[in-house]
Amino acid sequence: MPSRRGAGGAYDAYSHIDGITRRTPWRMEQSGMRARVGGAELILGDHPMAAELAALDLPIRVPLTSTVDRLAMTFHDAAPV
Fold first, then answer.
1. Which helix (H) or strand (E) holds 79?
2. Cβ contact 22:79 at 8 Å
3. Do residues 25 and 76 make contact, with C-beta atoms less than 8 angstroms apart?
4. Which pTM does this prediction carry?
5. What is the C-alpha to C-alpha distance for residues 52 and 57, in angstroms, rounded to an integer?
6. Strand-pair partners of 80
7. What is the pLDDT of residues 10-33, one digit of tens each?
8. Which residues pair with 11 in a beta bridge?
9. How far is CA 3 from CA 10, 11, 14, 26, in A?
C-alpha cells in the first residue's frame, strides 16, 4: 500500500545529557512507502553483529516489512526544557 506523497509528521525527540533535558523538534516527509504483512524471512549471516541479533531470539518470519522510496528528515536545534 503506497503512501500519499507528503505524508509524514512532526515529532519531538528528548535527550538528557549532563543533567539537562533537551527537546529537539523534527519533521519527516516520505513518499513511495509500501508495507506488507509477513513479507520477509530473517536470515542472519556470520558477522559478529549477527551473533548479537541471534541472541535476541527474534522470530524467523518477520511480522511486517516496509520500504520507502524517498525519505527526508529535518532536525531543528535542541532547546532545554
1. strand 79-80
2. yes
3. yes
4. 0.56
5. 10
6. 22
7. 999 999 999 999 999 999 999 999
8. 26
9. 17, 19, 27, 20
DSSP string, 8-77: EEEEEEEEEETTEEEEEEEEEEEEEEEEEET--B----SSHHHHHHHTTT--SB-SEEEEEEEEEEEEPP
Q: Give which of 39, 29, 41 is closest to 73, Cα–Cα.
A: 29
Query: How would you label 4-29 residue by residue, b for 16+ Cβ within 10 Å and e otherwise?
Result: eeeebeeeeeeeeeeeeeeeeeeeee
Integer-rounded Cα Rg, in Å, for the chain is: 18
Distant-in-sequence, close-in-space partners of 46: CB < 8 Å, separation ≥ 6: none
Cell of 36: 506488507
The span from the CA of 52 to the CA of 59, in Å, is 14
Q: What is the DSSP letter of 4?
A: P
